[in-house]
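Researcher: Structure for this, please.
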Amino acid sequence: MSETDWELFLRDTALCLSTYQGSGPAMVWPERAHAILPMLLGTFGGTADAGWRLAPPGAGANRLAAKLGDVIGRTVEAFERWLLAGSAISVDHTSADVLLFPVRGGAHCRIDRRDHAAHEQGGLELRLRAGEIVYAPAGHGCTLSGASAPCPLLLLVLRATP
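Model: Predicted structure, token format:
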């Protein structure tokens, strides 16, 4: 994998953030995702029944988080988790902006504002596939389901700069 792969992937992700940050959910299809995903999957840790966990030291997810943090000027933390076939999980980092994507496979994704009543219509529903990134600003949560096989997920939490 070349530095150009990283640069193009990060450029598209940063462009999405600069355009949509704080205004609402968004999707990004970063260029060169096909080159980045194997590096992320090759160091993916955890077990299929564990919850969200910090990416282990040396993991590709940490390299991605550090490089993205450098580009956008924020601290970025990487978390990993498996979505099992037939299960559903919630991502409730509502105090921070997040980027979420499957490293392999795909899942149904629903993003809602957490301050809306459950009966209110709205939100964003989509099929999220490997290499596609969904951005959810603070105050939004995601529900993932509908994986047909165990699906490794990466969550990048964007912390405010001190």
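Researcher: Any notable elements?
Model: Residues 97 and 137 are 4 Å apart (CA to CA). Strands lie at 26-28, 53-54, 75-83, 89-91, 97-102, 106-113, 124-129, 133-136, 140-145, 151-159.
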